[in-house]
Amino acid sequence: MEMQEFPQLTKVKELLIYTEPRTDFSLIGLISLLRASPNLQTFVLELMWFKPDRTRREWKEALESPLEHLKEVLVNGYHGCACEFELLAYIFRNSTALEKVTIDPQEKRDMPVPEYPHKMEERQAAERIAKHYAEKQLTEIAPERVNLFIL
């Protein structure tokens, strides 16, 4: 999969991306956006998965490119899919100033959605599984200098 190149976004210091990924390759393009934002300090990724896809494919590594000013990352809606792991692995490898990463398996919804008891239980179970994936995947690769919080 080829990544699109973005123009340099030198004035961007905070970036909030709200996305509804449909496949396990959906987030790889964000790496180009991060590379095009050399002064980025805070990156927030709001995920609303249509159907999380935890395929058993090999991890892909993006080209190295320093993210010298990135200090904080927040990911809401983490499910442990390969593309989420690849994006965070890239951030861990390339962010020399990174101080804090917060992972929240719970999706943040702008509008309230009517919940039925069985749907609420399914969602809570999915969030527990996602938290397990985050702990298993990310604690192994997070640099010691980074405070990793998995909610």
TrEMBL record:
Xref: Pfam families: LRR_At1g61320_AtMIF1 (PF23622)
Domain of life: Eukaryota
UniProt xrefs under InterPro entries: At1g61320/At1g61330-like, LRR_At1g61320_AtMIF1
Annotated At1g61320/AtMIF1 LRR domain residues: 10-110
This protein's name: At1g61320/AtMIF1 LRR domain-containing protein
Organism: Cuscuta campestris
Upper lineage: Eukaryota, Viridiplantae, Streptophyta, Embryophyta, Tracheophyta
